[in-house]
Amino acid sequence: MRFNIDGKLLQQQLAAVNKVINSKNALSILDNFLFELNGAELTITGSDQENTVKVRVEVMDSDGLGRIAIPAKTLLEITKEVNNQPVSFSLNDQTGEIDLQFLNGKFRFMGINADEFPKGDTLEEEVQNLSVPASIVLKGIENTVYAVSTENIRPIMTGIYWDIHEDDIVFVASDTHKLVRYITREVAPGFTRGFIMPAKPANILKGIIGKEDIVNIKIGEKGASFTFGDFTLTCRFIKGNYPNYNRVIPTDNPFTVTVERQSILNAMRRVAIFASKASNLVKMEMQPGVMRLAAQDLDYGTSAEERVMCDYQGNDMTIGFNSAFTVEILNNMSGETTVIKLSDPARPGIFEPLEQEPNTELTTIQMPMQVLE
């Protein structure tokens, strides 16, 4: 088994596949890339058992067929040093010894029997197919993945829920403190389906997908595959039924705050410096024309307040929010102006961009915190 390949291309593709490999694996074989050569096409695979990334790479001067597992860390370090030089890869099928030659030298190291590499999950014969522009998938993930839960007490909350309808796709994520719902009507799937995609493959997909790609999705009962460009990502779903997210979103929040997003974001960051480290509580005191942000840390005797100009329509109100969550929400929201819809200090606040992108709807809610006078 022998082939030549551009060193920079190899480095880029290895870095992409490496995103799926855990720093610590229960199976040592998962510390490796799987190389499979078939004619002029090399397939590189990485896996953590539940998620698999494959990339197809065109190679030159190939000879023979073969499969070998190669230590990922070693190969990544080698390709960084080789940089843009052409690389000649040669495998001794009898001994498993690998020669990797570049312009001024070579590396020699041992590969591992490819039969030890897990085959990975295969989708059922009965799958539903969906083709979606990559830009839509990217927006869905980018607008929601930050809100997934990092606690495993409720596994179903640790992923993004894809709620697929005849005429739209809804992406939902929540950690119970905040919830994001992103609706896109730019594609009409033509069927109804729902699944929970874990945060890890969602982040991998976000990191390696190209905006110009078309993503071909095959949806099975237990998992899905996403094929785009030269890549295929396969993941297992999180088991369970996602809560009815629409019931959580208030339908009657009559008081509205219209404020420049960057102004309130910067003010919230400054005031939060003096918030209690235990709660991150920042009070928002709403009055016509102005919002007063206030925080204090009784343990250290510090406090801060700042006024932000806004357009407020409603009764005077004081509501408390976790500043860390509010900063996350505002930081991940597009547009220059944000609308905050309120009804009562004990009910969730709704955060939305003043101007929604065409054929989309982004709604974020945040649970309030008790404010002690």
Give the terminus-to-terminus CA distance. 74 Å
SS class: alpha+beta
The stretches of 5 or more residues where confidence is low (pLDDT under 50) are none
Number of helix segments?
7
Please state the CA-atom Rg, rounded to the nearest Å. Answer: 25 Å
Principal-axis shape equals: elongated
Q: Give the integer mean of the pLDDT values.
A: 94
Strand line-up of the largest beta sheet: 14-11-12-13-26-25-24-18-22
Would you kindly provide a brief summary of this structure?
The chain has 373 residues and is α+β, with helices and mostly antiparallel strands.
Detailed description of the structure:
With 373 residues, this protein is an alpha+beta fold. It is 18% helix and 43% strand. Strands 14-11-12-13-26-25-24-18-22 form a nine-stranded antiparallel β-sheet. An eight-stranded antiparallel β-sheet has the order 6-2-3-4-17-16-15-10. β12 and β13 form a beta hairpin. α1 runs antiparallel to α2. The longest helix has 12 residues, at 7-18. It is elongated and about 80 Å long. The model has no long low-confidence stretch (mean pLDDT 94).
How would you describe this structure in keywords?
373 residues; eight-stranded antiparallel sheet; 43% strand
In terms of topology, how is this protein built?
Blueprint: E1 2-6, H1 7-18, E2 32-38, E3 41-47, E4 51-58, E5 60-63, E6 66-71, H2 72-82, E7 86-91, E8 97-102, E9 105-110, E10 128-133, H3 134-142, E11 159-164, E12 169-174, E13 178-184, E14 193-198, H4 199-208, E15 214-219, E16 223-228, E17 231-236, H5 245-248, E18 255-260, H6 261-272, E19 281-287, E20 290-297, E21 302-309, E22 311-313, E23 317-322, H7 323-331, E24 337-342, E25 349-353, E26 360-366
